[in-house]
Amino acid sequence: MDSSPVSEHPDEQVVPIGFDDVPGPAVRRLSLYLRQLENCLAGGQTTISSRDLGAALGVTDAQVRKDLAYFGQFGHRGVGYKIDRLITRIRKILATDRIWDVALVGAGHLGTALMAYRGFAPKGFRIAAVFDVDPAKIGQPIPSLSGRVVQPMAELADTIRRLDIKIGIIAVPADAAQAAADQLTEAGILGILNFAPVALVPKGKVLINSVDLAVQLEQLSYRVCPEPLSERIAAADVAGV
Amino acid sequence: MDSSPVSEHPDEQVVPIGFDDVPGPAVRRLSLYLRQLENCLAGGQTTISSRDLGAALGVTDAQVRKDLAYFGQFGHRGVGYKIDRLITRIRKILATDRIWDVALVGAGHLGTALMAYRGFAPKGFRIAAVFDVDPAKIGQPIPSLSGRVVQPMAELADTIRRLDIKIGIIAVPADAAQAAADQLTEAGILGILNFAPVALVPKGKVLINSVDLAVQLEQLSYRVCPEPLSERIAAADVAGV
DNA sequence: AGGTGTGAAGGATTTCACAGCC
DNA sequence: GGCTGTGAAATCCTTCACACCT
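Predict the joint structure of the above. Result:
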């Protein structure tokens, strides 16, 4: 299982290293740091400390420093981080220093909202192709990309290969999601953002990231519910359920 | 720090207890277990083992058992879990064994998609009021709830108090999100699901759960990018950035 | 055999605390 | 004085492994 025959040199500057085993939580926060930094820059700030950056996001200063340190040295002691440089470097790390074409499957309400979403472009994501099964949807124009229209599923593989698209979004009903994922994977997609409320099983080498809108509300109701948890458990125990 | 003067009885059924310090990850998975169980039930299954439930979600069997055990005893040794009972009990725990009225702020593309989303109702969430600043949007009907229409922001507090709404959704542009959150909080909302791409700071006792669509894609691009991470870091170091 | 519930072990992540630099 | 980068400690979470049940 240990497939890394790395040089046995006991010492030396193989550089910070360990890249590739950055904690998942750190990577997720990296996106939030980037977003916050972009806001600060827009606000005219040029420099920020780990404390201020963390405070804006509800994270400790030590956490911020540790997270950034996984990726190299970014700060200046006694000063903080230079916002514009840090942004550039985080974008490189997240690989959003380029344009990613994205394929969207499903042109229903959610799909339409995603097509119109203004937040993707400034982050480097462009919905470059849209597919649907519904003949009524096919042929409708894609607002973000003049000239292109919603295509039938039959054209999915060809289009994705031709445009060399690597990321897909699934916005179809639950019962069509696995098939959509399989078709995307088969067409060479490497990562999928899934909005359908089902657990998808990856067929082949693809990375699936799911966002379930109802689950997000459920998590809120769990925490916000006025009855204490102990009662909710007790109630279930009794209640002859 | 040990503030639990629990009976010192060495033995005996004080019942699991410790409720209230359930690990966050366990609660998040609980939602996924519930969803999967609902699917299994719909498929005609009546019983499931921790192994099968976990496998469907990419989680170990031990993890499933441990997670469920935080909330009590649910299974039958040698058999597994009775699906229908487990569903009922998890719903109680997540507090979705009731209807939660939800206030939506923002009737743009995303807001409209959320109003039309079919996934909320079966989970117990009902969008009961919608607000927007745009006069063109105000007065438009809410599809999910006949008779009700999009209201102006000025009516937000009154309506939320009158309908006793405790959960809100923010689907407005980034620069309007904090104000929306403040108004919701002021009106007595306890939990907010925020889709605007900004870090909101809670004013008062409110719980904010944010979902940033672009961030989700960013996480994919990080992991899917063909250039190895080490190069992305090195490139940034060099490049005179 | 098959399967849960759970203490104990192991890993992973976060926080502490401080050396070192501006 | 302010602030980063980082080992070490503390905490949190997951996995192991097994008693116990059916």
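Chain B has two domains: 10-94, 100-215.
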